[in-house]
Structures are given as C-alpha cells and as structure tokens.
C-alpha cells in the first residue's frame, strides 16, 4: 500500500499544473527570501489565503516550494550586502560577504545554490527512505499520547528558545487560549462568541498573517539599511568554481545537511540554530579555523547546506504530530488545516493522505533541482533583489495581507485580528517572548483540546490516564509525561544541584 | 538564607518593593502583560458559563495565561508577592477540589495539588519566592551559547529613574546581550516612528475598508504610505496603481464582496462600471454645455 501511495504521488507530481505550481512556489520563495526583511514564514503566510481556490495537493506544493526556495533565497542578501534575507542565513554572512568583497560573489552564490540543493536532495531522500518506519511510529501513537506530544512540543520550544522560561510558556498558553474562541471541538458549545462574527472562532490564518506579516512590516518600518549601497560585481566565471568547491567538500555537505535535519526536527530550534551549529562544527573540524570569517568557502557550504537540510527535519514533527519545527512549518500546518488536512496519523494512512504526503516530499525533491538550475543560471541577476527599497515592500505586503485575509471569509473580525496580532507579535518579539510558541499554541489548540477531551473520555475524566500505566496500560504516556517534567524542571534541578555542589 | 523577622526587617521588606514599584518605568511590555492578564481573567471567568466538557481546556489555558502574566508583571517583587500568589492559588485549588469532591467524588487531583502547594508555600516561603524568581526571570538555554545561561535576564527593569531622552533607548532590549544568541530572532529599531505610523496607517486602512470597501481603501492606504515615506511622485503613483491593481485582481478573480463597506453597506462603482460610464461622456458634456 505504501508503494502504491508512492507511485500515486509520482503520478500526481508529474502533471503540468502541479509542476507549474511547484516552479512558481520555488521562484516566489527565492524572491521573498532574497528581499531583506522578508522570509519564509512571511512569504508563506501571504500566499496562504491565495491557495484557497487550489486543490489541497497543489496548495501544499506551492507552500513547500516557497519554504524551500526562500531558504536558498535568504543567502543572496547575506552574500551580497551582508544582511541575511532570512535569519537562517545569518552564518552565511560570515564568509559569504567577505567572498563578495573579494570579487568572488558569483562563487559564493554558486556554492549557496549547489550546497542548498544537494543538502535538500539528500535530506528529503533520507526522509522518504525512512518514511515507512515513521509511518509505523505515528500510527502506534494513541490519543492521550498525541495530547502529551503536543505539550512536549510546547515545552521543548520554551526551553530551546532563549529567554525567560515563564515567557515561553506564557506565549504558548496564550496561543492555545486563542483557539478556545468559537465552537468547542467535540462538544460543539459556543465559547466567547459575543458577536456572530466570532462563531467560527478567531481565524488562525489571520493570526499567522498578523504575527508574521504585519509585525514584520512594523519592524521593517523602524529599521534603516538593508538595501545595496553600490554596484555589486557578479562575474559569471566564478560559477564553475563554486560548483566544484561544493562537490569537493562532500563531508561538509553531508554533515551540515544532517545537522540541519536533526536540529530542524526539534520544535522551536529551526534553521537559525542549525545554521550556527553547522557553521561552528565546520570551524571546529577544520585544519585552518582562522580562515573562517574572511571568505572561507567551507563556511558558506556548511551554513547553506544546513538551512536547507532543516526543511526535511522540520517536516517530521509537523506532519506526524502537527508540531511545527519552525515558524514556516507552523504556516504549513495552517495550510494543511485550511484545506481540511489534519497532521497526524491520517497523513500516513495509505487509505488517507499518504499519497499527498509523498507528493509533498517529492515536490521538495524536485524543488531542490529547480533551486540548483535557477540559482546557477540567474547568479548574475540576483543582485537586483538587494536593491528593492523596503519603502516599496512594506505597503504591498500590508495590502496583500489585508486582501488575502479579508477575501477568505469577508469577516470584519479577521481584519481586526490581523492588526491586533500584528501589534502583539511586534511587541512579543521586541520583548523576547517566543512567537513560535505562540503560533504553536494557535496551530495546536484544536488538536490538543480534541485529544485531551477524547483521552479524558477514555478515562472517565481522570487525568491519571497520562501517568498511571498499571490501570490504563499506556506506558508511552508515562514516558512522555516524565519527559515533559524533565524538560520543564530539568534546568532548575541542574542549577540547584550545581549550586549545592559549588557550596 | 535565614529569615530575620524583626519589625525593622519586615518594614524593610515592605519598603524595598514599594521603592521598586514607584521607581519602575512602564514600558510596552507592561501593557502587553496587562493585556494577557485581563484577557486571561476575563476568559477564565467566562469559561464557567460553558458546559463542563467545554470549560476544562479554556479554564486551564486562561488560568495559566493570567497567572504567568501576573508573575511576569510582578517579577521584581516575587520574593514577597510569589508566596502570596502561591498561597492564594493553593487555597483556591483546595476549595475548588473540596467542593467537587463533596459534590460528586471528583476534584481529588485539584485537592491534592492545592494542599501540596499550600504546604510548600507555608513551609518554604523564602525558597518558594526565590524559585519563582528564577523561573520567571532567568534565561534558560539548552542549545546555543552556553554563556547565556549565566547572564541575568536583561528584561528585568532597573528600578532607576530614567529621563525622557533615555527612555527610548532603555526601552529597547539590549542588543549586546542578545546578538550572540542563535536560538532567537532579535532586532533593533532605528526609527521608533516607523512602526507607530505603520500601525496607525493599518488602522486607517481597516476603517476605510469598513466604510468604502477594500477595493478603494487599498490605493488610499498605499498613497498615504507613499506620502509618509516621501517617495517621489512618479514612484508613489506607480506604487498606488500597483496596489489598486492588486485589489482589483482580488475583486475580479477571488472575492467581489471586498468592494463593500461592512459598516455602511456602501459599494462604490468598480473600475469596469466606471469605464462603462464613458459611453455617456458625450451626453454628460452636452448637459454641461446646456447648464452652462
């Protein structure tokens, strides 16, 4: 059945319409990633409402195309103007920009395209090969465990994200609270619906657009720079050198891609972390660590291979349990939900959406080939992206955000939601509250509540179902509960123990 | 730490937080936390009106939001406030659990949790306050820079008096402390007016949308933005036309209801309707000449 689903996915992908949506997604992604200040979650959030008329497969392919493309696109601004188009390309600046200053911009851009594409191809292939094992694992998880996995994801994000632990939890809990407005899952009660416009709850697409698009535009409006000050010379001759250099460092590509994949699978860590981890590892394992930061090609390879490797990794918790590994996968989950696709077992069920899951993975595979071809053929033209003034970008992003949100349901509350959550998102980021945890809460709310409700029904309302395997026979629930407690209280116990030892 | 319960030390312990409160400078973070607190309390109260099955989840989340927002608001005084909050919460849980237990044998978990919390708060109030302080204020990091776990939280407000000129700079999170972080996304604001103007223009865009519909509100918003950004006329016009074209594409291809004002019910003629009026241009001109 799995093989049949895979063959079905290949057939679905190889249609002209699907390939065009994939191509469009990757190209939009490269442009969005290349424009300083924008990034994958913002690009995907704006595209999200526009996917409504599409069938679910094409909609998801368009979104993953934008995701994958923008991961590569982010390196363009990092290399050419020392400003990462996306935060996941920050480490690319360290060596990419010095290469550009040395007149080797084309080489750096070619390395970026090749390393991104190779890492993407490698990690997606690994994911496809391991998917049967993943399917077994996901299908073995029951309702109480799915609720606990959601809480575990939330706990992980609050721990991984730097800052106050309480702030992280507050962000996640507040996100979950947002989803309690409207009809209660299972019991179908109306909650907090003071006006008829809230009967369907607060639209998560509007929340995502507010948090990612409006908040980002408010931030961008307060920043200067990000635009190329002068002409950047991009000589076509360096392209072959860039490709050769990447191919000559297969271990760096392999290692960084896998770091990206593993870190990407940790909720909240995302490409920004994997980017630095892979770069640090490249420096650590180098025989000439001092050359990093002054135009070492390996630095660019490591950074770019890792951030594209993250895409595959972050998809694992996203489609398995509905837990986004990053902001981008949160929007992707939003896309799945918008098209009535529930992340979880149904995405791996051969009689469910397994064909769509494989189509999505194969689309990413082909998307990486598009990145390679486009990236290499357009190297000399990519500098244009860095010259677009943010004064032109901001009003157009706001316009597209408003239009996309309002056109979805013609509900005035949605416009208000975009603005309110835009402002909240702006200040949350400013004061170091995890927006990812908040988004996770918003995306996970219904799933978590539904699973909590069903689990409590199984136990006649007793919370002991999560911790008492002797009565309910759910050992995995106990393990997950212990993991959550360890994750939440571990750092405090560790510090207390260290203080005790030093005293 | 041993506790000194003399009158003087008690007075000190009351005076110090009071001085901190009076010296604390309100920031937008306080507003954000107050918003979470008010919404949390309101939704917690509101949840009691729902059917039992539908109220568990919102009560848990609303309660969590309110308590965490309060703890963060009171983070500079947690050694004093923390035990009081813990005792209050414990008493509430005991009462809630006992009521449920007497009614239908439920609420045992709540009763036990409340009891344990009360015992901890009463028995170890100093340590409880310190633990809460650490939970709320100190940064944790599993991944990324190890130094981050050692540095104090830069968001804890200094109880110093800050003059107006310093306020904006102090309001911004410390970039030095944050720039080394790989696990988060931070930024600096060069022009504080930018976000404010963008927010105000967005609100204006919303109000216009509710009045005259989004089709015509869009070019007005873009033109207003271009005016604020002091774009040259040609580019401003081009951007406004692009904005209008985007709105028109949405109107024509995706959803024509965007042209109607929700509050007023007004729907201004669409461009194609306006173009249709050109047919009557000759008549209009004729009437104009007659009237003249």
UniProtKB/TrEMBL annotation, chain A:
Q: Which UniProt keywords apply?
A: Membrane, Transmembrane, Transmembrane helix
Keyword Membrane on this protein?
Answer: yes
Q: Which Pfam families match?
A: TctA (PF01970)
Domain DUF112, chain residue ranges per copy: 19-440
The answer to keyword Nucleotidyltransferase applying to this record is no
Q: Which residues cross the membrane?
A: 20-48, 60-85, 105-130, 137-159, 165-184, 196-215, 315-337, 358-380, 392-408, 415-444, 472-493
Q: What is the official name of this protein in its record?
A: DUF112 domain-containing protein
Source lineage: Archaea, Methanobacteriati, Methanobacteriota, Stenosarchaea group, Halobacteria
Automatic annotation (TrEMBL), chain B:
Spans through the membrane: 27-44, 65-95, 107-124, 203-227, 233-254
Keyword set, alphabetical order: Membrane, Transmembrane, Transmembrane helix
Acidic residues compositional bias: what residue ranges? 147-168
Q: Which residue ranges have biased composition labelled Low complexity?
A: 169-180
Residue ranges of region Disordered?
146-180
Q: What is this protein called?
A: Tripartite tricarboxylate transporter TctB family protein
């Amino acid at each position: 059945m799995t093989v049949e689903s895979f063959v079905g996915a290949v057939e679905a992908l190889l249609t002209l319409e699907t390939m065009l949506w994939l191509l469009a997604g990757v190209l939009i992604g490269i442009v969005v990633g290349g424009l300083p200040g924008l990034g994958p979650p913002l690009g995907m959030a704006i595209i999200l409402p526009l996917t409504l008329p599409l069938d679910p497969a094409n909609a998801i392919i368009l979104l993953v195309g934008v995701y994958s493309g923008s991961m590569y696109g982010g390196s363009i601004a990092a290399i050419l103007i020392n400003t990462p188009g996306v935060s996941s390309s920050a480490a690319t600046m360290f060596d990419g920009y010095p290469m550009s200053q040395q007149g080797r911009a084309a080489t750096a851009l070619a390395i970026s395209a090749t390393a991104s594409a190779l890492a993407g191809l490698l990690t997606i292939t690994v994911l496809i090969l391991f998917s049967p094992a993943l399917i077994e694992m996901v299908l073995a998880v029951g309702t109480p465990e799915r609720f606990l996995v959601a809480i575990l994801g939330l706990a992980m994000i609050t721990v991984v994200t730097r800052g106050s632990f309480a702030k992280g939890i507050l962000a996640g809990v507040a996100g979950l609270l947002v989803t309690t407005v409207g009809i209660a899952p299972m019991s179908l009660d109306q909650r907090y619906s003071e006006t008829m416009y809230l009967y369907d709850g607060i639209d998560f697409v509007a929340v995502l657009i507010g948090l990612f698009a409006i908040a980002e535009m408010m931030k961008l409006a307060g920043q200067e720079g990000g635009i190329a000050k002068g002409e950047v010379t991009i000589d076509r001759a360096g392209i072959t050198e860039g490709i050769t250099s990447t191919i000559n460092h297969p271990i760096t590509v392999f290692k960084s891609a896998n770091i990206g994949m593993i870190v990407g699978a940790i909720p909240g860590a995302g490409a920004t972390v994997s980017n630095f981890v892979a770069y640090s590892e490249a420096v650590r394992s180098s025989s000439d660590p001092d050359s990093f930061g002054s135009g070492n090609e390996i630095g660019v390879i490591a950074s770019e291979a890792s951030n594209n490797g993250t895409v595959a990794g972050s998809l694992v918790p996203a489609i398995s349990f509905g837990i986004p590994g990053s902001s981008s996968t949160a929007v992707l989950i939003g896309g799945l939900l918008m098209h009535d696709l529930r992340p979880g077992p149904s995405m791996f069920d051969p009689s469910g959406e397994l064909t769509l899951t494989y189509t999505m993975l194969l689309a990413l595979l082909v998307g990486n080939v598009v990145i390679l071809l486009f990236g290499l053929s357009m190297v000399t033209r990519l500098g244009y992206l860095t010259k677009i003034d943010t004064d032109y970008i901001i009003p157009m992003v706001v316009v597209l955000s408003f239009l996309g949100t309002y056109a979805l349901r013609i509900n005035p509350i949605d416009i208000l939601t975009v603005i309110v959550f835009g402002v909240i998102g702006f200040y949350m980021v400013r004061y170091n509250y995890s927006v990812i945890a908040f988004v996770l809460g918003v995306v996970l709310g219904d799933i978590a509540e539904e699973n909590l409700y069903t689990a409590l029904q199984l136990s006649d309302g007793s919370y002991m179902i999560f911790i008492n395997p002797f009565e309910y026979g759910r050992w995995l629930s106990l393990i997950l509960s212990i993991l959550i407690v360890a994750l939440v209280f571990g750092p405090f116990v560790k510090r207390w123990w260290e203080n005790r030892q030093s005293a | 730490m041993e506790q000194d319960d003399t009158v003087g030390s008690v007075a000190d312990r009351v005076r110090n937080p009071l001085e901190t409160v009076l010296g604390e400078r309100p920031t937008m973070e306080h507003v954000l936390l107050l918003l979470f607190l008010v919404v949390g309390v309101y939704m917690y109260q509101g949840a009691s009106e729902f059917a039992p099955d539908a109220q568990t989840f919102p009560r848990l989340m609303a309660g969590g939001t309110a308590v965490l927002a309060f703890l963060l608001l009171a983070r500079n005084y947690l050694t004093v406030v923390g035990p009081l909050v813990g005792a209050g919460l414990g008493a509430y849980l005991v009462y809630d659990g006992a009521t449920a237990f007497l009614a239908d044998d439920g609420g045992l978990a709540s009763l036990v949790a409340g009891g344990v919390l009360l015992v901890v708060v009463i028995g170890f109030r100093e340590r409880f306050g310190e633990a809460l302080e650490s939970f709320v204020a100190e940064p944790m990091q599993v991944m990324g820079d190890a130094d981050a776990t050692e540095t104090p939280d830069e968001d804890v407000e200094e109880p110093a008096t800050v003059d107006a000129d310093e306020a904006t700079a102090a309001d911004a999170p410390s970039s030095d402390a944050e720039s080394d972080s790989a696990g988060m996304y931070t930024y600096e604001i060069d022009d504080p007016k930018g976000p404010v103007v963008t927010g105000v223009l967005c609100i204006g865009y919303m109000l216009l949308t509710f009045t005259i519909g989004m089709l015509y509100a869009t070019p007005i918003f873009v033109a207003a933005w271009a005016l604020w950004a002091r774009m040259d006329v040609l580019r401003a016009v081009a951007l406004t036309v692009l904005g209008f074209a985007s709105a028109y594409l949405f109107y024509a291809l995706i959803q024509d209801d965007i042209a109607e004002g929700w509050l007023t019910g007004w729907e201004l003629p669409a461009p194609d309707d306006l173009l249709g009026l050109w047919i009557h241009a000759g008549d209009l001109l004729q009437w104009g000449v007659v009237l003249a």
